[in-house]
Design goal:
alpha+beta, 2 helices, 5 strands, 23% helix
Length: 105
């Protein structure tokens, strides 16, 4: 769902669930000549906060390290790198709500 949302927004998905010894990146995309590392968070309720609130400063630091590892493993030379969050809320009734937060770090 998150990858489809990004594609509809004009981004090109380069990788899904990329793993290395340091962890996993949910999605890696290109937005023009900018590399976008995307953390996807899904929640059924907001009882314990929104999906985006689950992305802590620790998680952002890990995403930065993983972005560097992804770049080292691939032949990509982006102009810049940004970290986005796709927050998905799936309520008991109705369709899912997808929110794309750009450049969170």
């Amino acid at each position: 769902m998150a990858a489809n949302h990004l594609t509809a927004a004009g981004l090109t998905v380069l990788d899904r669930n990329w793993r290395c010894a340091a962890g996993e990146l949910d999605l890696v995309a290109a937005d023009g000549d900018e590399l976008v590392v995307v953390e996807v968070k899904t929640r059924r309720t907001t009882t314990y906060g929104t999906p985006a609130e689950a992305v802590t400063w620790r998680k952002l630091a890990r995403l930065r390290r993983l972005a560097a590892a992804w770049l080292a493993a691939h032949d990509e030379r982006p102009r810049s790198v940004r970290i986005d969050v796709v927050a998905v809320t799936v309520p008991r009734r109705g369709g899912p709500l997808v929110e794309h937060l750009k450049a969170v770090a």
